[in-house]
């Protein structure tokens, strides 16, 4: 194994939130709960199980309260929720989320289109969430979208990404997930972005969240691993996309990520066959084929 690669990677499974939130069809609570529990059965120890946003804006995340309250909890598993504001945080706390996340952007135009405010205003909005989370001893993860490119502005400044990452860490986020929201990144661009961010935030606090629009997600993740990143977001069956980014396909498939990590000899704790079964389950529920190449190759 290449000695520059980490020995172990933590996989953050985002399909129940980031994957399902863009579906046109309605998804019932029982299906969402079954998906989360199958993912945990496969060995995943961090699952983003829902989002406490206004259901008018993201109708597929309606019922997140019930999802969290219905789940059969496992010890040492993080059941995380996206909480865009203090009201969302209070709902997540009441529902029993044991970690929360806030979601910013490195592009001003994307921030306006996605959360209807500027980058600086979004950070101000997160401040009371961070304060409340600290009071309740709940960890907060920070997301930054459009870290390489924006559907409205084109290329995004790596220095801006680093600035937003630094501010989120200073506010109290323990980890920053860097998202190539529209999947335009290449290994060179991702490496340059990570180098800039790592000057402001220790690489131990960084994660990557890659979309596969141009088929670059796995090679971009590999580049991040070589930079010392040890946390990778992915979505089973390659679910997800971005409603504000035309043509943006889904997240990197968890099955494909696990297959690659297996080949690299990197530990992750996930059973690939059980993971494929979970992806097959949700794909059937959505009436589509599994978006994972590894799952299709292995007969899902």
TrEMBL record:
The lineage of its organism: Bacteria, Pseudomonadati, Pseudomonadota, Gammaproteobacteria, Cellvibrionales. Its EC number is 4.1.3.4. Pathway: Metabolic intermediate metabolism; (S)-3-hydroxy-3-methylglutaryl-CoA degradation; acetoacetate from (S)-3-hydroxy-3-methylglutaryl-CoA: step 1/1. Belongs to the HMG-CoA lyase family. GO terms for biological process: ketone body biosynthetic process; L-leucine catabolic process. One of its GO terms (molecular function) is hydroxymethylglutaryl-CoA lyase activity. Keywords: Lyase, Metal-binding. PROSITE patterns: PYR_CT. Pfam families: HMGL-like (PF00682). InterPro entries: Aldolase_TIM, HMGL, PYR_CT. SUPFAM superfamilies: Aldolase (SSF51569). Gene3D superfamilies: Aldolase class I (3.20.20.70). This is hydroxymethylglutaryl-CoA lyase. Residues 9-276 form the Pyruvate carboxyltransferase domain.
């Amino acid at each position: 194994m290449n000695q520059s690669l980490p020995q172990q990677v933590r996989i953050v499974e985002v399909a129940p939130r980031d994957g399902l939130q863009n579906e046109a069809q309605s998804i019932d609570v029982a299906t969402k709960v079954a998906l989360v529990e199958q993912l945990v059965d496969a060995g995943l120890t961090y699952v983003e199980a829902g989002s406490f946003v206004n259901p008018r804006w993201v109708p597929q995340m309606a019922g997140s309260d019930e999802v969290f309250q219905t789940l059969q909890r496992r010890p040492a598993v993080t059941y995380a929720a996206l909480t865009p504001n203090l009201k969302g945080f209070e709902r997540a706390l009441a529902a029993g989320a044991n970690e929360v996340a806030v979601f910013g952007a490195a592009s001003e135009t994307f921030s306006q289109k996605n959360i209807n405010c500027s980058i600086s205003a979004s950070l101000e909005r997160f401040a009371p969430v961070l304060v409340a989370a600290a009071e309740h001893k709940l960890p907060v993860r920070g997301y930054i979208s459009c870290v390489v490119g924006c559907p409205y502005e084109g290329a995004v400044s790596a220095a801006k990404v680093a600035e937003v990452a630094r501010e989120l860490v200073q506010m109290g986020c323990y980890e920053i997930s860097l998202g190539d929201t529209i999947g335009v990144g290449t290994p060179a661009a991702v490496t340059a972005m990570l180098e800039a961010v790592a000057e402001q935030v220790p690489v131990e606090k960084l994660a990557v969240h890659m979309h596969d629009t141009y088929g670059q997600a796995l090679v971009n993740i590999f580049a991040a691993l070589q930079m010392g990143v040890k946390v990778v977001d992915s979505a089973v069956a390659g679910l997800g996309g971005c409603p504000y980014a035309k043509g943006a396909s889904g997240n990197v498939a968890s099955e494909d990520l696990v297959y690659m990590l297996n080949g690299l000899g990197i530990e992750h704790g996930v059973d690939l066959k059980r993971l494929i079964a979970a992806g097959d389950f949700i794909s059937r529920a959505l009436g589509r084929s599994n978006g994972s190449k590894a799952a299709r190759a292995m007969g899902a």
